[in-house]
Amino acid sequence: MTEEEKEVPKKKKPKIPRQPMPEQDPHERAKNFKEVTYGFTAEFALNESIRCIQCKKPVCIDGCPVNINIPEFIKKVSEGDMLGAAKVIKKSNLLPAICGRVCPQEDQCEMVCVVGKKDKPVSIGRLERYVADYEAAHGTFEMPEIAPKTGKKVAIIGSGPSGLACAGDLIQMGHEVTIFEALHKAGGVLVYGIPEFRLPKSIVERELDYLQKIGVEFKVNHVIGRIRTVDDLIQKDGYDAVFLANGAGLPQFMNISGENLNGVYSSNEFLTRSNLMKAYNFPEYDTPIKKYKNVAVIGGGNTAMDSVRTALRLGAENAYIIYRRSRDEMPARKEEIEHAEHEGVQFIMLTAPLRVIGNEKGWVTGLECIKMELGEPDDSGRRRPVPVKGSEFIINLDAVIVAIGTNANPLVAQTTPGLELNKWGYIVVDSEKTCMTSKKGVFAGGDIVTGGATVILAMGAGRNASKSISEYLKNL
Amino acid sequence: MNKILEKKVWWKDTPAIKEFVVEAPWIAEKHKAGQFVILRVSENGERIPLTISNKNLEKGTINILFQEVGKTTMTLGKLNVGDNIFDLAGPLGKPTHIEKFGTVVCIGGGIGIAPVHPIAQALKDAGNLVISILGARTKEILIYEDLMKKCSDEVRITTDDGSYGRHGFVTDELKSMIESGMKIDLVVTIGPAIMMKMVCKVTEPYKILTFASLNTIMVDGTGMCGACRVTVGGKTKFVCVDGPEFDGHQVNFDEMMARLRQYVDEEKVAKELCQQGTCRAA
Ligand SMILES: Cc1cc2nc3c(=O)[nH]c(=O)nc-3n(C[C@H](O)[C@H](O)[C@H](O)COP(=O)(O)OP(=O)(O)OC[C@H]3O[C@@H](n4cnc5c(N)ncnc54)[C@H](O)[C@@H]3O)c2cc1C
Ligand SMILES: Cc1cc2nc3c(=O)[nH]c(=O)nc-3n(C[C@H](O)[C@H](O)[C@H](O)COP(=O)(O)OP(=O)(O)OC[C@H]3O[C@@H](n4cnc5c(N)ncnc54)[C@H](O)[C@@H]3O)c2cc1C
Ligand code: SF4
Ligand code: SF4
Ligand code: FES
Prior knowledge:
The structure holds two protein chains of two kinds. Chain A is of the alpha/beta class. Chain A has 20 helices and 16 strands. In chain A, the strands form four sheets. In chain A, strands 3-2-1-4-16 form a five-stranded parallel beta sheet. A five-stranded parallel beta sheet of chain A has the order 6-14-7-8-9. In chain A, helix 5 crosses helix 10 (about 125-140), helix 7 packs antiparallel against helix 10 (about 125-140) and helix 11 (about 160-170) runs parallel beside helix 20. By secondary structure, chain B is of the alpha/beta class. In chain B, about 30% of the residues lie in helices and about 30% in strands. Chain B is built from nine helices and 16 strands. In chain B, helix 3 (about 115-125) links the parallel strand 8 (about 105-110) and strand 9 (about 130-135). The longest helix of chain B is centred in the last third of the chain and has 15 residues, at about 265-280. Chains A and B meet through strand 5 and helix 15 of A and helix 1, strand 7, strand 14, helix 8 and helix 9 of B. Bound molecules: flavin-adenine dinucleotide (2 copies), iron/sulfur cluster (2 copies) and FE2/S2 (inorganic) cluster. One iron/sulfur cluster binds next to helix 7 and helix 10 of chain A.
């Protein structure tokens, strides 16, 4: 038993249960794009904050990839000092309103929380969200302390969480920072991938606004590799260092027949149409999306859940998840799987698609699948699914959304000579801490290094890179 | 934001054909033949691809030429000199593979002539003998005749109604050329999907290398979404990053044409709303 565990009985606190998260009624919310959860009330936040026993050796801090001083901020919450709590969080995490919503807390900070050994863990993520939302509503803009200008310029490629975090740090260190973003809107997956009902875009906009106010320059509609190469930025445009944070945005398909029929989408396309282009507001917004009746999403990750719940909100009568392993192996957050289920998503587990079936006009009419059973564990330690002979069946559909993961987009790599890549096309860096690539003055972090991961890991990489870049600039 | 410096109306009846000269120095500097831009006309707007049909490096400008076929192009057409294009990203796509092939036939159909122009120019500069075939429905909507003459050794024209040049399709002219025994090393074709398909059918038996520049539906144009995918040689390719040009004999045109029709119903709704006067550029 650890020290912390022994403390539990000693303090004899009244036992307060983990506070529930108020949310929209599942039937109601399955028809709208408003945020699913409302966030803690002041009372819930206070109750929850008291559940933290203020461990002497707070293991939760190590569980957080950016090491937020969790007990310190929770203490401030319990004292009613929300703005103080926000300050504590912001020392380590520039995007708390976002992480509080989308972090896989149950596998990170909350997984190791000591209270969780005997009871349910403290809702660290929900408290973080509460504090961040409170600050947004009540705080006033405060210019952070910015170091004297160094005269050094850094170009950041990509405006996802990794690029944004790096920019926020570098500007405070006195460097000039420009973010180059391929799309017309900054934010990366936060704006084009994760739906409004899980992460309202106004929250992302607030963070972008803040960065702009503190001096970060955004150049949207700039596809690096085309309008400028990394070498151009250094040689022609006078940037002293470049941070590659261009994400893992290349969709994978299944390579089965019928995959180019009308009605088959990558999750990226489906979500981009809906989120970035606001197709759910068609014709008020110009980008169209179809209202499909029977939709199947292939995959079991967050992206699959987001796609299937979007399809439901666009009016699907039957929205299915088709996943080749069992429910326990689904990589999506548990909370999201539950939300999807409550909203009426149907799960077809241990099933793999064989081919997409279409009509003479080129539209999807169905999907042929085969049942799977779990065999021996594979490299990842998960039991490998194997097809059950003769178990083929057809499910009638008018749309299929493929959400089986993404790869590295090769555009930047192909146009940057001297950049070392691994066999999957991701950028090789010296170490997680330095984020240094094989090319002088060029750093990389986030999904383009790790492959599809999480918001908080991408952010953490951006912060590590900022320190390493600043060090590099000092020695120039 | 990129400013419109010149506007030319090639054809004012429906569907109108218009051309802009747009201030875009960085794009002009990097642009190579075969590349395109993606633009939006307003905050609510769709992202649409248009080819860079000409440029002026000294002035830092690019030209785009478009036909008003739907909401976005109709809204775009309402902009005037001095207005800005809301969003403009480019140059996108792989540049055309340019080398000295020998004798090259450049075929542009309808407004497809505009995107052929920079390619013909680059092929000419690379020392090829360039013969261009320009096709139009009727004489009055033939575009870029003068520009094409400047970068071609010879220009041949066909019209569907016989009002100018040869009465017939570009494929008729191409067939005659091949049958006359002319040695052709490369054909480049841009125009409606059906025309490109027919051109490829003509050249295939003779094994004449044929580049077709595909105009699929796109969203991001960076290889992120896969909306633009086509089957080429049995493999899925993304037009925005692997193309827009492909070996035409390998392209599954029927699949591509079906994919182009994905949103016809929605496009009609948007267009009707637009014709009722609700569309405005920002
Ligand atoms: C649908 C979906 C749901 C998810 N849900 C969660 C979740 O609940 N929790 C969680 O923690 N994580 C989630 N993730 C993962 C998380 O979003 C990513 O790990 C994270 O966004 C990676 O950040 P990044 O900064 O590395 O890259 P990205 O967010 O991918 O940003 C990269 C940016 O670079 C731009 N770019 C690319 N190429 C170029 C170029 N050549 N020039 C200029 N700009 C370029 C892109 O347009 C993009 O804006 C989800 C991902 C998806 C797709
Ligand atoms: C790489 C590329 C380069 C292009 N270059 C040019 C150009 O230089 N000039 C130009 O006028 N057009 C060009 N196009 C086509 C142009 O993008 C479409 O005409 C435009 O998207 C129509 O948008 P809209 O909203 O006005 O019409 P929509 O409402 O989207 O469509 C109206 C009608 O046009 C058809 N249509 C839609 N998209 C396309 C398409 N991609 N190709 C052909 N027909 C389509 C629809 O089926 C419908 O009948 C190009 C397309 C690509 C992919
Ligand atoms: S950022 Fe994520 S891991 Fe860190 S404390 Fe917040 S919710 Fe937990
Ligand atoms: S959040 Fe959990 S682990 Fe962290 S200090 Fe509080 S009780 Fe301890
Ligand atoms: S348009 Fe999205 S990948 Fe080509």
